[in-house]
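Course assignment 3, question 2. Fill in each field.
Student: A.L.
Task: Predict the tertiary structure for the chain below.
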Amino acid sequence: MQPTIRVRVKFGSIYHEINISSQATFGELKKMLSGPTGVHHEDQKLMYKDKERSSKTYLDVVGVKDRSKMVLVEDPINQEKRYIEMRKNAQMEKAAKSISEISLEVDRFAGQVSALESVISKGGKVAEKTLLNLIELLMNQLHKLDGITADGDVKLQRKMKVKRVQKYVETLDVLKIKNSTAGTIENGDAKQVQEPPASQRQEHIISNGHMNAASPNQHDRYQPPFTYDLHVI
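Answer field:
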């Protein structure tokens, strides 16, 4: 059984008495001091016999005994490093949350892209404004992603989302071209009307030197090959 000792640690003008195993480390002692002193264990420096002790050093190895005295001081360098790391982690969490929110929006737009692609690929036509508005919405998501600063895995996630949005924008650009081309036929913007050639438009047939009226059935059998575009407004 490990013997328990009581050490007195001075922090500022106050002494804190801590019961701890004599075979514990200074690092374990620091963690026990975090509560009563309010100083994070990574921001502490423990001085024993006027010398700073490493967190990995064992108390009994350097001669700490029952009623031994130590001095605790804050380490401003470690404190600053920890604050910087905390801010960085907070920024990464915020960036990850923003990317997640953007991803949900992109999922919603992806369904609209698929629906438009299905209509246009089957020869249908949609209002060009619908395509343009969807492209604009996706571009807004790209701008949001560009404004996110991230590192590590979060940065990789941002890069993947950017590529995904760019793919949808490219798809819509192609659909916009197909939609404008298909519109002249699918929406009835242009219709085709046939007219018989001159040789078959004769209303009289010359026979035995006389002009005879052509039978109505003759016109019914005509299959004119020529076409003219008639634009409907």
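Instructor remarks: Residues 185-233 have pLDDT under 50 and may be disordered. The chain is about 50% helix and 20% strand.
Grade: pending
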